[in-house]
Amino acid sequence: EVQLVESGGGLVQPGGSLKLSCVASGFTFSNSWMHWVRQAPGKGLVWVSRISSDGRTTTYVDSVRGRFTVSRDNAKDTLYLQMNSLRVEDSAVFYCARSAYNFMDVWGKGTTVTVSS
Amino acid sequence: DIVMTQSPDSLAVSLGERASINCKSGQSVLYSSNNKTYLAWYQQKPGQPPKLLIYWASTRESGVPDRFSGSGSGTDFTLTISSLQAEDVAVYYCQQYYSIPLTFGGGTKVEIK
């Protein structure tokens, strides 16, 4: 079964850091570009970042560039999102998703990040 | 950035009736070199992650019921549910993947009348 499982969410104070993980199974992770997408409570979907299959190419939405870093460990079938200088407006469910021509054909269940003092 | 605008924000349809959701992109998402339209549709049920329904504007993902169809070209697109079922209650999103940043529409909530 093709599956993505996120973890690492939690409560963090403004200005703090958090690192999300996404473990892939059921497909050849090292061949797949991957995305992070977030969804604030009661709001719509916002694309955050993508990373190439070899990890050499990364792209970010303007609102997180310079604060978030996407990376991957293909030996561990794991995608990461390091989030620094977190803001209240970063509070959201974060989904990892497999990329197919830049649409998302497999999604994880998400992990919740809450930024609050 | 390509702005994606969906309409309506919500709609209520009787069981077995047709539901149509519109999506307009701020610029064409047709890539002329390959004649492909870079538009996808997703369904998100309460408490669940999004699920891919349609890509390339009209190609149904494997396993998606054939009552779901996508149409349109250039900048105007439609997701149609030909005969609404109870399990189709959800929020539906369009997404362009023509250019970075990837952008989604604001979503359309479909309910049973």
What structural class is derived from the secondary structure elements of chain B? Answer: mainly beta
Number of helical regions of chain B: 0
Q: How much of the sequence of chain A is in beta strands?
A: over 45%
What is the chains' assembly state? heterodimer
- List low-pLDDT spans of chain A: none
Radius of gyration of chain B over alpha carbons?
A: 13 Å
Q: Helix count of chain A, per DSSP? A: 0
State the total count of DSSP E strands of chain A: 11
Q: Whole-Å distance between the termini of chain A?
A: 40 Å
Describe this structure in words.
The complex is a heterodimer of chains A (117) and B (113). Chain A contains no helices and eleven strands. Chain A has 117 residues and is mainly beta. Chain B is built from no helices and 13 strands. The A-B interface holds A 35, 37, 44-47, 50, 59, 61-62, 95, 100-105, 107-110 and B 38, 40, 42, 44, 48-52, 55, 61, 93, 95, 97, 100-107.
Secondary structure: elements and pairs:
The complex is a heterodimer of chains A (117) and B (113).
Chain A: E1 3-7, E2 10-12, E3 18-25, E4 34-39, E5 45-51, E6 58-60, E7 68-73, E8 78-83, E9 92-100, E10 103-107, E11 111-115
Parallel strand pairs in A: 2-11
Antiparallel strand pairs in A: 1-3, 3-8, 4-5, 4-9, 5-6, 7-8, 9-10, 9-11
Chain B: E1 4-7, E2 10-13, E3 19-25, E4 30-31, E5 36-37, E6 39-44, E7 51-55, E8 59-60, E9 68-73, E10 76-81, E11 90-96, E12 103-104, E13 108-112
Parallel strand pairs in B: 2-13
Antiparallel strand pairs in B: 1-3, 3-10, 4-5, 6-7, 6-11, 7-8, 9-10, 11-12, 11-13
Question: Which features characterize this protein?
Answer:
heterodimer, A: 117 residues, mainly beta, 7-stranded mixed β-sheet, 4-stranded antiparallel β-sheet, 0% helix, B: 113 residues, 51% strand, globular
What is the structure about, briefly put?
The complex is a heterodimer of chains A (117) and B (113). Chain A is built from no helices and eleven strands.
